[in-house]
Amino acid sequence: MSNGLWDYGHVNAIHLEVTNRCNAGCPMCPRYTDFGGKLNPKLVETEMSLENFSTWFDPTFVKQLARVYACGNYGDPIAGKDTLKIFKYLREHNDKTLGLAMHTNGSARSTKWFYELGQLMNSKERNDYCVFSVDGLADTNHLYRKNTNFEKILENMKAFIAGGGIAKWDYIVFRHNEHQVDEARALAKELGFIEFNVKRTTRWYQYDQGVGYFPVHNKDNVEEYRLEQPRDESLRDSNAMTIKKIPGIVPNYITNEQFDNMKVPGEDYQLQVFDPETDTMIKTDYRKINIGCRAVATHRGGNGYHDEIFVSAEGEVYPCCFLGGEPNRYDSWSPLSGSNDSFMHMLRSLGGREYIDLHKHTLKEIIESDLYQRLLPASFETDHNMRSRQCSACCGKEWNKLDQGELGDRTTAAI
Asked: Which residues does 253 contact at the CB level (< 8 Å), separation at least 6?
């Protein structure tokens, strides 16, 4: 391929959203609106079946894969009826090189289910693992992971590890749980986890005297309590500090008549980050941030994964979960409700979501389409009018919100 980006024959990693259903009620999750009080009205709950999955990805293609990890934007893999069956299908057809991974809150399913999952995800050489997203201990985890039960999570953790599973712990730090970080890390080590990763969220509603907060509402839209940034500044994200260090970027403007004629209503190409030092918003033109796409071969850094795709619960193929969340985006607490991202304008220009739907097209047809071969690669160019805000915010080279805290730091997570 001339552009050196997505190539069907080189796709060897899939981020899988088995279902957009979830047992938890995390208030900052785009699954919910009204500060966690109500289900996103744009979300139509659905999931993949083993029948669909095995049709879309036959045994020959599975043998091509080096990594499948189940996470998603709106759901938890353990809420899917066929999740374990799908993982068994993958392992059956590739037990040598395919690394299986999952992210879960761990508060559903039986210990037997988790034991069997552990049997499928038991090789460090293949890079198998399950990330348990648990933000506190028995008295605090439920404040963000609403509707979850810490004792059940603990039982499922033990069952997964007993089955041979390789476990990692992700811990989003807030004011209410910052005092438990060391205790939770010690528990993870005692249970047999190989990593404990502290994550710093940026999803704050507003800032009060430089400290971020997020009100948590019930179904009647009444505030019950607030989530707040940690008091320990070392446990906060470093987005403002990093973005202020970006040197002047020389524009590398390219012309694409189709994109130049597509105006994005209301788009001012401004990315805003709160600066607690000045108590103001830092604004920058996100088109000027260079892209280091996490999904394509040229930027994977030699880790063995390249030409990654994200497959949504609806069976739609996106470059990544960041763009895959745009069709159902609904932020009731932000100035713009719904998605106005330029990626959606690209997709609409091609006929809409059916264009990338595995129920209507093969994976090969989708990857070899105009979206992947021309439009998206062009939008990666610096200063391009159709640059996606998500691409800059999540995969910028000089700055991105993920590497300043959202993903934590795996290099310091080993225990």
From this structure: 382, 383, 384
21, 80 contact by CB (below 8 A): yes
Q: Is-contact 80 55, C-beta < 8 A?
A: no
In angstroms, the Cα distances linking 403 to 164, 396, 400 are 31, 10, 6
Tell me the pLDDT tens digit for each residue of 168-209. Answer: 999 999 999 999 999 999 999 999 999 999 999 989 998 888
Interatomic CA distance for residues 191 and 189, integer angstroms: 5
In the 3-class helix/strand/coil scheme, how is the chain assigned residue by residue? CCCCCCCHHHCCEEEECCECCCCCCCCCCCCEECCCCEECCCCCCCECCHHHHHHHCCHHHHCCCCEEEECCCCCCHHHCCCHHHHHHHHHHHCCCCCEEEEEECCCCCCHHHHHHHHHHCCCCCCCCEEEEECCCCCCCHHHHCCCCCHHHHHHHHHHHHHCCCCEEEEEECCCCCHHHHHHHHHHHHHHCCCEEEEECCCCCCEEECCEEEEEEECCCCCEEEEEECCCCHHHCCCHHHHHCCCCCCCCCCCCCHHHHCCCCCCCCCEEEEEECCCCEEEEEEHHHCCECCCCCHHHCCCCCCCCEEEECCCCEEECCHHHHCCCCCCCCCCCCCCCCCHHHHHHHHCCCHHHHECCCCCHHHHHCCHHHHHHHHHHCCCCCCCCCHHHHHHHECCCCCHHHHHCCCHHHCEC
Q: What is the pLDDT of residues 31-55, one digit of tens each?
A: 999 999 999 998 999 999 999 999 9
Query: Looking at the whole model, is its pTM more than 0.70?
Result: yes
Structure-token match 């389409």, residue found: 369
Which residue's entry shows tokens 């193929």? 317
Query: Is the separation of the CB atoms in 144 and 27 below 8 Å?
Result: yes
Which residues touch 302 (CB under 8 Å, ≥6 apart)?
none
**CA 379/CA 363 separation, integer angstroms:** 22
* CA atoms of 282 and 278, how far apart (whole Å): 9
